[in-house]
Design goal:
Layout lengths: L3 E5 L5 H12 L1 H4 L10 E2 L5 H9 L3 E8 L2 E11 L2 E9 L8 H16 L4 E7 L3 H8 L4 E8 L9 E2 L5 E8 L16 E2 L2
Parallel strand pairs: 5-6
Antiparallel strand pairs: 1-3, 1-10, 2-8, 3-4, 4-5, 6-9, 7-9
Length: 193
């Protein structure tokens, strides 16, 4: 099996990113994987103008994980308030459960820890997604108890099918600023998957 390689997304990748992220989160295609939000939200997961802003702003990268030129997963990593922020994490439903998610998370942590020397990674997860939260907890993230409102009136991020959606903040200290975070695999050029 060929290596999983990472690169930064460009504006030219926006159509592929939209398709990838939507397939992982929304509609019937997302039900092939284990991370679907199809019962919680419909419509957009992300829109081109948000992707463009995330790709072009400073201290913000959208990581694309590719094998043989095919995008299999992605994540947004950025600096926010002196910490790393991890979001828009998606793995193609047909490629899930093959270690790609672990590799993407490790690469995002490496960017925050090594490239930007940030001490902590944070993320927000819909608190009803207990299986996903448990996955992050097994990778060293802890629930902070901080709750944030879901942007229920902003259709750029989906239309809620329930009225009880909210985000919980998870966080993980990143060990050192040049070493490898506890539990994270190194990412040097590519990852054998």
């Amino acid at each position: 099996m060929s290596e999983l390689r990472f690169r930064d997304a460009t504006v030219a990748d926006i159509p592929a990113l939209l398709a990838l992220v939507t397939s992982a989160y929304r509609g019937e295609d997302s039900r092939a994987g284990w991370t679907t939000e199809a019962d919680l939200l419909e419509g957009n997961r992300i829109v081109p103008e948000v992707l463009r802003a995330d790709i072009t702003r400073a201290r913000s990268r959208i990581l694309l994980a590719e094998r043989n030129g095919e995008a299999l997963g992605c994540a947004h990593v950025a600096e926010e308030d002196g910490s790393g922020y991890f979001g828009m994490f998606a793995v193609s439903p047909r490629a899930q459960r093959a270690g790609i998610g672990d590799a993407i998370l490790a690469e995002a942590e490496r960017v925050a820890r090594v490239d930007w020397r940030l001490p902590l990674m944070r993320m927000t997860v819909i608190d009803l997604r207990t299986e996903l939260i448990a996955w992050y907890q097994r990778r060293g993230y802890r629930r902070t108890g901080e709750i944030r409102p879901f942007p229920a009136t902003d259709p750029r991020f989906g239309v809620p099918l329930r009225d009880d959606l909210r985000f919980e903040v998870l966080e993980k200290p990143l060990a050192g600023t040049t070493g490898i975070a506890a539990g994270a695999a190194p990412a040097v050029g590519g990852i054998q998957a």
